[in-house]
């Protein structure tokens, strides 16, 4: 029997091959069950309905080539899921900046989460998997906040994902962002090195604070354009902590314009009047050596119109 998603509506026994060797069990299931909600995957894992070599496993278990994974029927999952719209699929396919046999890089639209969950039905990864049902492997290589637009890397093979992760850990991928900061900044450049620590409030909201006991973090800022009371800057990540640019900018006393979590409400309100509806942060470029190209790969995502337009209404310094 086959369900409405083209998946067998019965128990499946899947043998892990070289493409999935070393992959986390939860990510393996999500790649096998394209379009199935993350909540369902973690639920069946908790219940022990997923087995590896006949044994119960935690979501973070790393699979090995030759492991046999028991995947339960999908009838219940079908009640919780829906297919991403054709419009979303086309939108993401048109946003591709670069693609080769190993990787895919898109210019992620703002307002779109990188993955579903927490009230979000479909993220980038679910939409792309749905638009490419025959793709054997597709995984996010890093993350962008929902309100951040720009360059986002995905791997099409397990070996490519490992390579991208190794390059990032070694600091060999240059990630450049553009951000509009509140306040006129006179210095040309500066290094922000305050350690950061993630916290969860009673409400469940996740927030990051500067904390001496936090993890090391380093952001390099350079002024691109000064305006009367704001400054357009380039930010280069030396580390990849959650909300790093946002928190380092706020710690400098110059929060990112449009930031609802770490920003200035009065400044944000004024810029809403200028048409800015979101965080002014854009992942503008990526640079790294990639064997498929035989040289250093340079990828750029132009500043979108919703971020370019407010600049035209500012007084240049």
Describe the protein's architecture and organization.
The chain is of the alpha+beta class. Helix content is 23%, strand content 27%. The chain folds into three domains: 12-78, Structural Genomics Hypothetical 15.5 Kd Protein In mrcA-pckA Intergenic Region, Chain A; 86-163, Pseudouridine synthase (2-Layer Sandwich), CATH 3.30.2350; 171-311, Pseudouridine synthase, CATH 3.30.2350.10. The strands form three sheets. Strands 5, 6, 7, 8, 9, 10, 13, 14, 15 and 16 form a ten-stranded mixed β-sheet that branches. A four-stranded antiparallel β-sheet has the order 1-4-2-3, with no helix packed on it.
CATH homologous superfamily label of the largest domain: Pseudouridine synthase
Runs in which pLDDT lies below 50 for 5 or more consecutive residues are 1-7, 76-80
User: What is the oligomer described by this structure?
Assistant: single chain
Order of H and E elements? EHHEEEHHEEHEEHEEEEEEHHEEH
Count of strand segments: 16
- State the major sheet: 10 strands, mixed
Helix share, percent = 10-25%
Which CATH-level-2 architecture of the largest domain?
2-Layer Sandwich
Mean pLDDT: 88
Distance between the termini: 68 Å
Which class do the helix and strand fractions yield? alpha+beta
Per CATH, the class of the largest domain reads Alpha Beta
Principal-axis shape equals elongated
* Strand portion: 25-35%
State the CATH topology of the largest domain: Pseudouridine synthase
Task: Determine the number of helices (DSSP H or I, runs of at least 4 residues).
Answer: 9
Q: In total, how many domains does the architecture comprise?
A: 3
Radius of gyration: 21 Å
